[in-house]
Design a protein that fits this description.
Residues 1-22 form the signal peptide. This is Amidohydrolase family protein. It comes from Stenotrophomonas tumulicola. The chain has 451 residues and is α/β, with parallel strands linked by helices. The protein folds into 2 domains: 32-87 and 401-443, Urease, subunit C, domain 1 (Roll); 89-359, Alpha-Beta Barrel (TIM Barrel), CATH 3.20.20.140. 31% of the residues lie in helices and 20% in strands. The chain has helices at residues 3-13, 102-106, 112-128, 142-149, 182-185, 190-193, 202-216, 243-255, 267-276, 289-298, 316-339, 372-387, 428-431, and strands at residues 32-42, 47-48, 52-57, 60-64, 75-78, 83-86, 88-93, 131-136, 157-160, 164-166, 197-199, 221-224, 260-264, 280-283, 301-304, 343-345, 411-414, 432-437, 440-443. It is globular and about 70 Å long. Residues 1-6 and 15-28 have low confidence and may be disordered.
Length: 451
C-alpha cells in the first residue's frame, strides 16, 4: 500500500479505534461528585486551604465549603486531607507525532489500524498522567479530537492547530529528499497529504492555508516564522515569511476571533512576528532582553520548554543545531521572567514516544527559575489563560486552571502537598489518586464503570 494512502486511512481510523480503548460517552446530565475533606490548591495565590468539601455537578464545580450541598445520589470521594488541584495543561503538544516515531509512521508495511490504536493509546496515557488539556500545535489531530470528545477514545481536551503553515524551505517543509515543489510539479508532499503541514508561499496561499485549518476546527493557527533544530533544510538563524505573509495569517485568524502563534527563536523573527500582530511565540531561546521587554509591553506570550542537553544518540546535525538553543535557554527564561513576559510551558516532544513517560518530570526543569508555587500556577492557571486566547474558537467554553465555583471540573486528587514537594507531580501513577476530566472520574478507586 502506498504510504500516502495508508496515512489517509490512518487519519480516518482514528475515530474508529478498538472498543478496548473506548470509554462509552455518557451524558453530563446533572450527576454529582463530592470530594469530602480535601485541601484546595489555590493556583493563583500559591496557597493550600484547610480541609473542605468540593461539589462537582455535571462538568462544573458547583460548590466549595458551606456551598457544597450534594444530593443523596452524589458519588463521594474521601479526601482525607489530600490536595485537590486543577488538571495539568501542556501548552505545546503534538498528539500524533509524540505517539509515533518517524520510522514507524512512514514504514512501507505500517498498518493504519495499528498507528491509530497507538495514537489513541498514547492519548489515554497522556490524560492518565494528569494532563487533562493540551494545546496541539501542529499535526493531524482533528479526527483524534473528535474521537475523544464523543467518548470513543480516552484523552485530554485538545486545542487543535491542525497542519502547521510554512513557507517553502521553512521549518514545516517536511518533504522527503525526492519530493519536489507542489507549485511547480503539481503533487502535494507526503507531509501535506497526511495533514502535518501546509507549504504556503505568498499572501494568497497563506490565507487559504489558515482558512482551511479554521474550516476544520482549529482553535489557533501555528505558523513557522524561523528555522528549527529538527528540520533538515532550514538553519536556526533564518527568518521565515515576509511581514505581508505573516500579517495575512494574523488577519485571517483575527477575522475568526482567534490568534496566531509562531515557531521562532531569533530576535529578527520574533520582532517581525510582533509587528505582524502575532500573540504567542513558541520557543524564543535566542531572544535578547530588549525584545523580551517589547513582548511584555505588547502582551505577547512566550510558550517555553525545559529542553534537556543533547545526547550522543541524536543525529550530529541536530546536536549542532540545538547547541545555541540549549545555551540560550537559561538566559532567556530568566530574562523573560525579569521583563514580566506572560509565560506558558509545554514539552514539545516529537517522534520520541519513549520520552512521553517523562512528560510530568519535565515540569521539574522549571525549578531553575521558578518556585513550586509559580510552577504549579504556570502549568495550570497560566496555561489555561493562554488557551483562552482562542475566544469563541475554543472548543471547550469555561474556565480551567483553577478550583473555583463555576470552573470546569478537571481535577487531580494528589497524595501529599505539591507546594511543599513538587516531585509529587512527577510520579502520577503513585501520587495522582483520582483524576477527573469534564466532571467524570477517569482514574481512582471509584472511577465510574460506564466511562
Amino acid at each position: 500500500m502506498a504510504i500516502a494512502s495508508m496515512l489517509r486511512r490512518f487519519s480516518m481510523l482514528l475515530v474508529l479505534v478498538s472498543s478496548a480503548l473506548a470509554w462509552g460517552h455518557c451524558a453530563a446530565a446533572e450527576s454529582e461528585l463530592l470530594f469530602r475533606q480535601v485541601r484546595v490548591l489555590d493556583t493563583v495565590r500559591g496557597t493550600l486551604g484547610d480541609p473542605t468539601d468540593v461539589l462537582v455537578r455535571g462538568n462544573q464545580i458547583a460548590g466549595i465549603g458551606a456551598n457544597a450541598q450534594p444530593s443523596e445520589s452524589a458519588q463521594v470521594i474521601e479526601g482525607r486531607g489530600r490536595t485537590l488541584m486543577p488538571g495539568l495543561i501542556d501548552a505545546h503538544w503534538h498528539s500524533t507525532f509524540t505517539a509515533l516515531s518517524q520510522a514507524t509512521m512512514t514504514a512501507p508495511d505500517a498498518k493504519p489500524e495499528l498507528l491509530a490504536a497507538t495514537v489513541a493509546a498514547e492519548s489515554e496515557r497522556t490524560v492518565m498522567r494528569g494532563f487533562t488539556s493540551v494545546r496541539d500545535v501542529g499535526g493531524p489531530v482533528f479526527e483524534l479530537k473528535a474521537a475523544i470528545d464523543t467518548g470513543k477514545v480516552v484523552g485530554p481536551r485538545i486545542w487543535p492547530s491542525g497542519a502547521t503553515v510554512s513557507q517553502t524551505s521553512g521549518h514545516g517543509d517536511m518533504r522527503l529528499p525526492h519530493e519536489r515543489s507542489r507549485r511547480f510539479f503539481g503533487k502535494p508532499s507526503l507531509a501535506e497529504e497526511m495533514g502535518a503541514t501546509f507549504i504556503a508561499d505568498g499572501r494568497d496561499e497563506v490565507l487559504t492555508a489558515v482558512r482551511e485549518n479554521l474550516r476544520m476546527g482549529a482553535s489557533q493557527i501555528k505558523l513557522m516564522a524561523g528555522g528549527g533544530t529538527s528540520s533538515a533544510y532550514d538553519p536556526v538563524d533564518v527568518t521565515q515569511y515576509t511581514l505581508d505573509e505573516m500579517r495575512a495569517a494574523v488577519e485571517a485568524a483575527e477575522d475568526w476571533g482567534t490568534y496566531v502563534t509562531v515557531h521562532a527563536y531569533t530576535v529578527r523573527a520574533v520582532r517581525r512576528a510582533i509587528e505582524a500582530g502575532v500573540k504567542c511565540i513558541e520557543h524564543g531561546q535566542l531572544l535578547d532582553e530588549a525584545t523580551l521587554k517589547l513582548m511584555a509591553r505588547q502582551g505577547v506570550w512566550l510558550s517555553t520548554q525545559t529542553l534537556r542537553p543533547s545526547t550522543d544518540a541524536m543525529d550530529p546535525i541536530r546536536r549542532e543545531k540545538r547547541k545555541p538553543v540549549i545555551e540560550g535557554q537559561a538566559r532567556t527564561i530568566a530574562a523573560a521572567k525579569r521583563a514580566g513576559v506572560r509565560m506558558a510551558w509545554g514539552t514539545d516532544f516529537l517522534f520520541e514516544p519513549e520520552l512521553n513517560v517523562e512528560q510530568n518530570a519535565f515540569i521539574l526543569g522549571l525549578r531553575d527559575w521558578f518556585t513550586p508555587a509559580e510552577i504549579l500556577k504556570m502549568v495550570t492557571h497560566d496555561n489555561a489563560e493562554l488557551l483562552a486566547l482562542s475566544g469563541l474558537r475554543s472548543p471547550y467554553q469555561g474556565r480551567l486552571g483553577v478550583v473555583e465555583v463555576g470552573a470546569l471540573a478537571d481535577l487531580l486528587l494528589v497524595e501529599g502537598n505539591p507546594l511543599a514537594n513538587l516531585d509529587l507531580i512527577a510520579d502520577p501513577v503513585h501520587n495522582f489518586a483520582v483524576i477527573v476530566k469534564d466532571g467524570r472520574v477517569i482514574k481512582g478507586e471509584q472511577a465510574r464503570n460506564d466511562l
